[in-house]
Amino acid sequence: MARRRIQPIGFAAALLLTPLAAGGQAEAQQQQVNTIHEALERFGSCWKPPPLSRAKPIDITVIVSFNRAGEILGHPRITYESEQATDNDRVEYRVAVMEALQRCSPMPFTDSMAGAVAGRPFAVQFHNRKPSPKPAEKRAWLTPKIL
Predict the structure, then answer these.
(1) Most-buried pick from 50, 110, 121, 138 (CB within 10 A)?
(2) What is the pTM of this model?
(3) Whole-angstrom Cα distance, residue 42 to residue 29?
(4) Which CATH number is 33-129's, of 3.30.1150, 3.30.1450, 3.90.550, 3.30.450?
């Protein structure tokens, strides 16, 4: 008889502990990066542009590679900066990009994602919302003519 009482208690304990263990695994899996889209979202969450008092908003693109452990491989390379940016703006945004990469690394890739992206370059674009520049010329050919 004693043996039958132990089994239901053990079974009940297993049922109670299983959701807690599964919840912990689910949280760990949610934090891991499994797609390129998730990696780019992670970069976006690490991005903190410099304040407007220090630099005007510009767009900047950096190419970066990771190893299987999610650490930055080699040196990130900036490949694009907005053409209207001043030297001060460029320096401020380069520092902000490197700080974002430091905050995001090591990138917590899943095993399958780590194998897929190891050594391959990511082109990460950091955009700042800014108003479109006004055209310098009037576009007379686009205005409707009423005859």
Answers:
(1) 50
(2) 0.65
(3) 14
(4) 3.30.1150
